[in-house]
Amino acid sequence: MEDVRSAADGTAAEVVIPVNGAALAAHLAIPPKATGVVVFVHGSGSSRHSPRNQYVATLLRDAGLGTLLFDLLNEAEENDRGNVFDIGLLAGRLGQVLAWLRARPEARGLPVGLFGASTGAAAALWAASNADADVAAVVSRGGRPDLAGGHLAAVRAPTLLIVGGLDHAVLDLNRHAAAQLTCEHVIEIVPGATHLFQEPGTLQQAAVLARDWLAHHVR
Fold this sequence. Notes:
Elements: E1 5-6, E2 12-19, E3 22-29, E4 36-41, H1 51-62, E5 65-70, H2 75-78, H3 81-84, H4 87-103, E6 112-117, H5 119-128, E7 135-141, E8 159-164, H6 168-178, E9 185-190, H7 202-217
Parallel strand pairs: 4-5, 4-6, 6-7, 7-8, 8-9
Antiparallel strand pairs: 1-2, 2-3, 3-5
Helix pairs in contact: 1-7, 4-5
Domain Dienelactone hydrolase: 92-203
InterPro entries: AB_hydrolase_fold (IPR029058), Dienelactn_hydro (IPR002925)
Protein name: Dienelactone hydrolase domain-containing protein
């Protein structure tokens, strides 16, 4: 499908990504001389318009990375809550989006990183576990990597798990998932943060951690 709107220099575009008959709205922004592209994999109840993800995306672009923010499910699909937690479905769809991205002229040849939140983090890790995924790095923010299950051991991309210090249940799940990872991985705990990093300064801390990890590995 054609771009809805493109910037004059070709570095930014509102696009629609076709996947198995569905049409996924997306925003693709690749700054000049980008060293890589980061694909955002949103969790339940979020979208490409999420202020939290938009904030992280801005930091990444300032660091010289392109960004792709898209909706994993269209509006009709989101109404079925089973789709939101169908990690296999989400990971398969993400794989198609990655193939679409790599075929774009402005992204061709650039390494790709994944930034996942909530169930999107599980989909990112599941997709990264595929032998032909060629993912340079993964970041999970407040994610549920445990939902990737047996696919965790096959992930080869360096993985950063960011969790709020007050998000106790999710922190335990992240520690359990980290124990199954065989790739380079780190758990970073943001003190005083709950699941959505709404406390003053906590989102900024998480965003900087994500930026530094991705800027280091996605190049």
